Amino acid sequence: MTSFPRRLARLLVRPASLAVLSMLVAFAAAMVTYAQFDLSVTLLCSGTTVRGSNVYGGLALVSFATPAELVFIFLARKRRRLLAAILLLGAAALGIAIGLVALDSATYVVRTCGSAHASYLYFLWPVSLALLLLQAVRAWRQVPTSEA
Predict the structure, then answer these.
(1) What are the extents of the domains in the chain?
(2) Cβ(42)–Cβ(109) under 8 Å?
(3) What angle do CA 73, 79, 84 make, to 5 degrees?
């Protein structure tokens, strides 16, 4: 019987597993940011939004794309080329979300109430993006001869 650390290590070397972990980190960061913005600014204030609608667009993109991508990864985990294409689509969605957040400087501002910053997305999402791209390359290169 194999030990738990060995089974975990074997599971994490698969491209699909690391991609799922990467997407879950991006999704968790989006959910924390939603909660931060809603609890610190939106809930306590009824002013108009001055800046931050692009941040919400990026958060929405990640929160809708991640569950869809997780389903597609599960369905295509045995077909490496299809898995690589799905991972590239997820990376593209995450890249667009990073761009949307950067347009508003990761800041959500409501007139007369204050602001909330989500600068941690500048670290978490690019790391997830890099992992997705790396796993897409790994999935593409590990294609068995019967699938190529």
Answers:
(1) 24-141
(2) no
(3) 60
